[in-house]
Every structure is written in C-alpha cells, then in structure tokens.
C-alpha cells in the first residue's frame, strides 16, 4: 500500500445490525469495503427491553480482527441510549432500549418543571419520548442510577472498553436534550432544575479528537499490532452521514434515507423559535460547529413493513410496477404515528386513504406508489418548511443512505421538491466516519475538501425535476385538508 494511503476501521451500529467497514483514503482516493456484519438483537427481560451490549462489543472485536491492520478506529451508532458504570468502571446492567416503556408519561412530569416551549428554547431538540433527558428522569429512583459514577452513551461506552478512556462525543451528546446548541456545552441551569447530575458524563469530545489507544488485551484479541488509536468521529450516525453529503456549496438540503428519513439543512446556528418547535424541527450538533436542522419522517419503514407482510414479489418488481401506476391518486401523512408500530401496514395505508375520502389503492403496486408519493411529499414539506424557518434557500437536494438505491423515490423527491436531486453515497455514515478519521490523520483538509473527495470518488446520480408542480401542491392541500 502507498505510504500516502491509510486504512481506517469504521464501526457503524444500527438498530438492527452493526458492521465494521474499512476505508482506504489517499489524497485523491477513497474506497470502502465491508469487513464484518453482525446482528443487533435487543432482548426483552423481566425488567424491560435491553440492548445486548456484550454481543455488540463481541461483534466489534470480530470486525476489527476481520479488518486487519488499520491506522485508526472510529465508532458511530444510534443516539440517546447509554450505559452506567460503577466506581470501578464496571457496567451496571445492559443499556435500556429507547423503545422501552419506562418513559411513558415522563415528558409531562418534566414539562411540569420546565414547560415544553422553554425546554425547546434552551436545547432546540424536538420532542421524542425517548430523549436521554426523559430516560434519566424515568430512572431517577433506580438503584442503578443511584450507584452509578459514570454515564457513557453507546458509542462512547464501546470506545471506553477498547481504550480505557472515557469521553462524551458532542454530536451524540446533543441528542440528550441537555446541551445548549448555542454554546455547544451542557445546559447546567436546565439540568439543575430537573435534578440531573451532569458530573455523571465524561468530558465532552469533538469529532477528530483522540480517544485513546487500543488496550493490550484488545490488540491480543483482534490480532492488531499497536499502537492503534481510536479517533472520535461524529458518533451519532446521522452526524457522520451528513458529513458525507457531497455538496458543492451551502445552498443544499439533505435527506438521510433508510428506515427513517431525516430531512433538513446544515446551518451555522440553531433555530430556536416557537414556530420551529411547532413544526417539529430539531437542532442537533454537527461537524465543525454546524447544526443539523432537520425533521424525522417515518421513511421507508412503511414500505419495508409492507414487503415483509407480502413476502412476494420482491422489492425490485414492486418498484417497477409502481412506476406504471398514475401519480398522486392517494397520499397519506408519512409522519403520522398511526404508522409507527409494526404489523398490518398495507391495511393501515388503505384505511388512511379511505378515511380521508381518497381513492383506495387496491393492488400491491398501487399501495407501493401511494407510499412513495407520500414520502416524496413529506420530503417536499420538510425541506420547504426548513427553508422558510431558517431563512436558508436551497438549490439542490442530496439524498444519502440506503434510499439512494430506490430510483423511483429519488425521482419522485425531485419532482415533489421541484429541485434537482443528487443521490449518493449509499454508505454515508461509514464514509463520514472514515473521513473524519482521515482528516485527523492529515489525509484530507476541511469539510469542503472532504466533500470534494466524495464527489470525485463515489458513484452519484442526478435526477432532474419533471412533471406538474401544481399536482404536488394539490396533493399537499388535499392531505392538509384531510
């Protein structure tokens, strides 16, 4: 390997699986390969739903062994969840899953002390029942929290086991609802009012900061030769994905697609207005002092659930048939909580169309087209509202993540938004993870340079808007009236 090319292991953990990817980066090259993939299976025990964190750690070790010799390791994962350590640094039970029922009704207790509008003005975070703030409030009377000396978010916990050094990465910390996005530091006043001990958290780290060296026992178990540093990356997977948006300027929107769609803007400062709260936008911290101003949309979950129930035909055949179905006959609100739970998704989609007085899709192709039209419409609404609320005009939409492989969705999003869509890369979170490591090791420059390298080396596809813009406006009006 050239002395100007280095290898970086990206540990990328999702809610259903984890993987270790290897990125090879040079001044003009960027290649990504998968070294190891492993399942992430939460476990329901008598006390509730828990992450099998030991299995995940074993998967990380197996992945590092499969990756071979690397110059650095970085870790990203989902947000909000954490592990508690005792005074000896031992884990106090498996981390609680964000879908656990313990936070039911907790938000109202928090709002009794700090009203929802005031909470948003202080932290900029949209309401979600599983935000770390609500989890800690729910855990207040537990023996585990009373015993704990340290709290580590999931990627920081894994980094601690690899290196013995504890830190709290800032982009993930911003999802706790305990960070002030203006100062990019803890909101001490808020925590004091809610009785949350911020000394539980390890010192804040920035993407690119060193996070320690792999311990001798880790080197022995993985077969790697030391020293191997762990580098702090945007440890919230969406932060890493947004870092890998191959944008050429600032006037862009992004959609990180997969089970969820995260649609929004990259800003220099947060938007903390009451109008922003009412529109359910969140201000999460990103790379280099940026803010990820975005809305969570249900995403391809609706289609994934339909395909799971149908079994046949496969997704490719469904998409080809859906492309032949007339556009916008029926649409549903892709953000409606009606679609959040698994099971009976085709029936729930048709029921929503019937209840709103629209034509009821009958075939699988018609249901698929309804879902994709609805997602494109939700993308349109999120991007247009973000533009207005942030006073930040957009010239192009970048779609990254697994949804880039869905050509029909990409084209419909361009049509709905009336803007060109650039689709790719599909492996955005892992690439963002790798690039932050590469930058810390002197192989790439600033965020602009990172994005130029992505644009030169990754397969991208451009979709131009087509069709009748008035039809999308009418569909939005129809949905709003419904």
Give me a quick take on this structure:
With 482 residues, this protein is α+β, with helices and mostly antiparallel strands. It has helices at 53-67, 106-113, 116-123, 132-138, 143-147, 154-163, 170-173, 188-194, 216-222, 237-243, 274-278, 301-310, 315-322, 345-355, 364-390, 407-417, 428-440, 447-457, 469-481, and strands spanning 6-13, 17-26, 29-39, 43-45, 48-50, 72-76, 82-85, 150-153, 168-169, 179-180, 185-186, 204-205, 210-213, 229-231, 252-257, 261-267, 282-285, 291-297, 396-401, 421-423, 461-463.
Q: Give helix % range.
A: 25-40%
Mean pLDDT: 95
Strand pairing plus helix content: what structural class?
alpha+beta
Distance between the termini: 60 Å
Strand line-up across the major sheet? 17-18-16-15-19-20-21
Strand content: 15-25%
User: What is the radius of gyration computed over CA atoms, rounded to a whole number of angstroms?
Assistant: 22 Å
